[in-house]
Each structure stands twice: as structure tokens, then as C-alpha cells.
Amino acid sequence: MKMKKSVFLLVCMFAGIIFFAANFCWAADSFPIKPIEIVVPYPAGGSSDVTARALAKGAETILKQPVAVVNKAGGGGTVGTAQVANAKNDGYTLTVLPPAIFNAHYMRNIPFVPLQAFTPIMVFGGWSFGLVVNSDSPYKTLEDFIAFAKANPGKIKYSAPGTGTSPHLAMAELGLKAGVEWTHVPYKGDPPSVAAVLGGHVTAASGSSAFIPHVKAGKLRLLATYGDKRMAVFPDVRTLKECGYDISYPSYIGIAGPKGLSKSVVNILENALKEGMKDETFIRSMDMLSMPITFLGSTDYQSYLIKVDKRASELIPALGLGKK
After folding, report:
1. Dihedral of the alpha carbons of 182, 247, 112, 184, in degrees to the nearest 10
2. Could you tell me whether strands 220-225 and 130-134 are parallel, antiparallel, or unpaired per DSSP bridges?
3. Cis preceding-peptide flag for 32 (omega within 30 of 0)
4. What's the per-residue H, E or C state across the chain?
5. Would you say the C-alpha torsion 106, 109, 113, 119 has a positive or negative sign?
6. Rounded (5°) CA angle 142-143-146
7. I need a labelling partner for 284 at 20 to 30 A (CA). Which of 101, 125, 149, 152 fits?
8. Mean of the per-residue pLDDT values of the chain
9. Are residues 203 and 183 in contact, defined by beta-carbon separation less than 8 angstroms?
10. Which residues pair with 224 in a beta bridge?
11. What is the average pLDDT across 7-17?
12. Contact of 134 with 197, CB cutoff 8 Å
């Protein structure tokens, strides 16, 4: 009798294991079965927001589920990303992952360690950064701007989309190498940062391609860009390197989920988002913002983030911006 009972229990146990495994495989194969949310850790209207919405629209067709984009601004990108870092790792909560959070980790205490908190999914492009002033500003060139800053230490105030972002660090590094002092005024993203210079609240704005329409409209003047190459939309504007400063801030923009996403879910999301990059709205949005379309899969994206983390660990202390 005891033998029969033991056999019965073993049969039930194995049946349970088979049932669980079958359901797990079914769940992975059927993903997604409900809407997906992509958190943009910056305000609506910025380059991250505009491009993520276009990418999400293209991916919806493949995923056959709505892909909603929500804005959670603040903390130089750490508020929205913290929400995703703490989300359930089932693939239904994702984020646009800004490199700025890696800088923030070495500058102040944030509620997660970036390299350990996320599962990279894919890169879809790159940011273009630059320095702008009002069109009626007396600064016609970067040299004019720096000459005034040298003669008037601390008088120039510039806005940037948060502390620890690439636009902030580029100005900190430029100030260090040019031997000038200026005052950083952080905002919760590019749109309010650009609005600050348009409204005359700051002398200049250091930011991403949200300034492009205002430069095209003649309201702002672009003094320099921060990439390795000139922006295609403004071929006459020099890079910082061309201005004599060995400073470059190439930066990828990508999608990630919480730590521990299953490989099968990552593959589904990576493939769907890659297909979303073919959407005409996405292509137009990237072109409008002069953001080069670039694809990196999850493995290459992870390698890139390791390099970003290493650079931040070295650059932040060198700029005197490390944790006190």
C-alpha cells in the first residue's frame, strides 16, 4: 500500500513538473498577451519621447498589442528608470535607457546600480548634442562665447536636460579644458531647457536635437556640436574637436527592461522593435531630429553599456563631480 502511495505521489510530482514546464513555454511563446508600456524618463516633446513613440507605433503591428509610451521625468532620467528597475521582469514594462543614469550613479546616490538593474534589449539610434544661444546673442562663434566666459567668470548660465546628462558633462569638460567657469542650471529635459534660453532665463542651452527646429526658424544659433562628425542638418557648424577641444559625446539611445528578462521575451521584443525601425513615421522622426538610425541587438547593447559605465567611472571623478 505504501509502495502504491509513493508511486502515486511520484507520478503526481512529475505530472506537476510537466504541467508547469508546458505552461511556462506556452507563456513565453504567447508573449505578449497584454499592452506593453515604455517609460520615457524625460518630458513629452523631447527627442527621446518623439522617437520612442514612433518606434512603439511600428512595433505594435508585430507584437499585436498596444505599446504605450508614458513620461516620467526627473532626476536627470533616474526617476522614470528607477520605476522600471523595480518593475516585474515580465517584459511588459520597458524604458528608454539614457546613458546619463550611468553618470548619475557616480555623482550621487540613486536607488539602483545601472549596469546591474536592467536587461538591454536593443539600440535604435543616437543622440546629437550641441550648444545654442539666442539668435540676437552677441556670441557669433564658440570662441566669442568662451572669450566672454573667461573675462566674466561664473556670469554665463547655461541650461541642460538634467545633472549628469551628456550635455551637462560636455559643458563641464569644455569649461575645464578651456579654463572657464560657468553656471549649470539643470532642467527636467530638453524642451524646458530650450525654453529657458528662448525666454532669456539663461545665456545658452546645451542639449540634444530638440533645438533643431528653433535653429532652423532663426530663433537660436548653434555654436558647436558634440559628436565625432558634424550634424548632417547643419553641415557648416563645427564640432568641439574642430574647435580645438578633444571632447566627443556620441551616445546611443535604446530600450531596456528590468533585470532578469527571459531570453525568449528579449528576442521577441528585440525583433519587433527592429521591425518598428522600418516604420515611415519613425524614419521621418529620426531624420527631423538629425538622429542617426542605428541598430544594436541585446548582446552588443550590453557591451556598449559596459563601456559607458567604465567611462563614467573615470570621467566623473576627473571633472570633480564625483560623490562627496
Report:
1. 10
2. antiparallel
3. yes
4. CHHHHHHHHHHHHHHHHHHHHHHHHHHHHHCCCCCEEEEECCCCCCHHHHHHHHHHHHHHHHHCCCEEEEECCCHHHHHHHHHHHCCCCCCCEEEEECCHHHHHHHHCCCCCCHHHHEEEEEEEEEECCEEEEECCCCCCCHHHHHHHHHHCCCCCEEEECCCCCHHHHHHHHHHHHHCCCCEEEECCCHHHHHHHHHCCCCCEEEECHHHHHHHHCCCEEEEEECCCCCCCCCCCCCECCCCCCCCCCCEEEEEEEECCCCHHHHHHHHHHHHHHCCCHHHHHHHHHCCCCEEEECHHHHHHHHHHHHHHHHHHHHHCCCCCC
5. negative
6. 85
7. 101
8. 90
9. no
10. 131
11. 45
12. yes
pLDDT tens for residues 205-248?
A: 999 888 999 999 999 999 999 998 899 899 999 999 999 999 99
pLDDT at 8: 45
Look up residue 264 and give its three cell numbers.
525568449
Q: How many CA within 13 A on the CB side of residue 28?
A: 12
- 3-class DSSP state for residue 34? coil
**Domains in the chain: ranges and CATH:** 36-127+251-318 (3.40.190.150), 130-225 (3.40.190.10)
